[in-house]
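dumping the sequnces here before i forget
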Amino acid sequence: MNCVLQNSEERVYSLETGVQFLNAGLQVIRGDTVAVLGEVNLEKEKSIDFDKVKANQLPPIFSNTH
Amino acid sequence: MQSQFFQTYFRGLIERCVSVTIELKNGLQIQGQITYVDDNLNFNLVDPEVSDPVKQPQLITLKNSFIRGSTVKYVHIPQEELQEEVLISACKNEVKKQKQ
Amino acid sequence: MDTLDEPLDVLKFSIAQQIYIKMRNNIELKGTLVSYDNHLNMIISKAEETSFQEGIKTKRKLDALYLRGDGIILISPLKKGITSL
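..and the predicted 3d for all of it:
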């Protein structure tokens, strides 16, 4: 399921700094690279201070094809 | 034995509103109720909860989620909701049907 | 008479029996085979997972689980006799 995203932002999680937001604009994402897709709860999102969220990046998913 | 077999089984879990934990190939565990499952065994979950929200906060704000079937490693099913006997005989029947 | 004609017959004769599964990323599973399909997707009951990561062995008891077949390397019945049919 290929997707087209508008006004997208990329979130980079790290243990040193808080979450970094990168503007990624309009992009096409190939369906086979998608693991999870979901509707965001904006209320809950507002209540989170992303500068204080420190976490490792999720490990990659190795499947048969890549 | 068609892959329809497991789709039908998961539809049964949906009807009985069983809560499951889907474990992805990268180890991420997402708990929730399945709302839909398609031919590719992609899942839709409602109110997904990550097993370790402190270490893995990436998905905590999701209201619902679509999980691509190919990224799934396990779906943990509560033992009491498994219906083991039913599944065993259904599977044997299915194998017999296919051999004919 | 039941004969072992094709590879998947190993699974056919193992329904409701204990099996051993080796998977990618150094993971091994033991449990009761409840059902399977042609993709080697399976439902395993009372599963026990052993994983070897960086020389460390971890065991997990997992209850019942649906297992996606694409990660499987080999499957073997734990009960002797099944493969000699």
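The radius of gyration of chain A is 14 Å.
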